[in-house]
């Protein structure tokens, strides 16, 4: 038998991280979890996980979590575990490499770890879709062919279906969306929606941000950008369709008219297990569909009037450059504000639309948009003082589709775009207060 695959798990205390550890736990001959990283909000759980897998290194983003973590590790007899702490701790860990790095950190915070894992030459099981959204060209440039394996169920489904044809035979990708908890409602019925209602997803149990993003359909917008980046298809060759049962995880249409779908009950264990064992399948990792019972699947177009987030993301993706980073950065701030009760549900996507428009208008004007009045334009240290200073670094846009030259995107430009978008979103939230 071959040696177990040595796996680094980033975001181990989250929804994906916990499920990944559960998939690997009964398969010790196949996987060896060497190290873990998390934010630092759940040190008890993190110490339990470290003890269970026998981790040699544990990283936490919050420096204040290091001491309590060390105490809990010591209480479990794990005094010799190395503890890394600080905002770059997960990236440092990823940069040390492993056979595989699972990046299940949530949000923009996962980008540096993605780049570090790729630079170290590890296979990257990527749940952190935000990496590909905000820094797509950067991430692709850093990756060798086949180095990134998708964990998102939709992209896993597409990767599976793509195995049955050649790239030049693919005509269209069809991304399925559950529609979220507010499917069928119109805009007027969404104004009073509460965070508790938005967090009650009908088919998936996930982390807070991705659950809210599923309710606004921003998640599907991010996945659209992820799919275009990962699979290299133009945006107009990717269709999003609502499929409330979440059994068909996505599809590939080939040029002879055949459509291949991957179907299984909604359970992330399957795409997580496939990514961890890629390109092989793990036996009995998830329940299959039941075919001895009457069942019905339905598909319907997205209501883009009530849920404009998918088309907003399409616009950001087609614009390229830092536009996706602007969309994502603003969204992270607006989601937090919604969960804190500072803004309403509709303010999330309405705010995104305004900020994206401001970015796109500023980009084409002779003097690029600076930072809005009333908000400091002093960027965090080490970054340019004004966003305008970063515009020359943005790629030249020369039309839709992935063929355009996007390679000029720099990490500095992505950081500036994210920073600017967060400022814009914070100003909008303040304006609502
Ligand atoms: N959940 C799903 O079913 C699902 C499906 C498809 C894709 N995804 C994607 O997978 C990613 C993770 O989602 P999730 O639902 O698992 O999120 P989650 O439950 O919120 O977990 C996030 C994890 O990231 C850790 N973390 C946060 N900031 C960090 C930082 N700066 N450095 C290191 N670790 C950090 C958290 O640690 P603490 O516990 O200490 O805060 C936690 O372990 C997201 O990109 C999401 O879109 C999720």
Can you offer a commentary on this structure?
This protein is an alpha/beta fold and 433 residues long. The chain is 41% helix and 14% strand. The protein has 2 domains: 5-127, NAD(P)-binding Rossmann-like Domain (Rossmann fold); 157-264 and 302-432, no CATH class. The strands form 2 sheets. The chain has a 7-stranded parallel beta sheet with strand order 4-3-2-1-5-6-7, with helices on both faces. Strands 11-10-8-9-12 form a 5-stranded mixed beta sheet, with helices on one face. The model is unreliable at 366-406 (pLDDT under 50). The protein binds NADP nicotinamide-adenine-dinucleotide phosphate. NADP nicotinamide-adenine-dinucleotide phosphate binds next to α1, β2, α6 and α9.
Structure characteristics:
alpha/beta; Rossmann fold; 2 domains; 15 helices; 12 strands; globular
Write the layout of secondary structure elements.
Layout: E1 5-10, H1 15-24, E2 31-38, H2 43-53, E3 57-60, H3 66-75, E4 82-85, H4 89-95, E5 100-103, H5 111-119, E6 123-126, H6 129-142, E7 148-150, H7 153-162, E8 170-177, H8 195-198, H9 208-216, H10 218-231, E9 238-242, E10 248-254, E11 259-263, H11 269-277, E12 300-301, H12 309-319, H13 323-339, H14 345-364, H15 411-432
Parallel strand pairs: 1-2, 1-5, 2-3, 3-4, 5-6, 6-7, 8-9
Antiparallel strand pairs: 8-10, 9-12, 10-11
The site of NADP nicotinamide-adenine-dinucleotide phosphate has 31 residues, from helix 1, strand 2, helix 6 and helix 9.
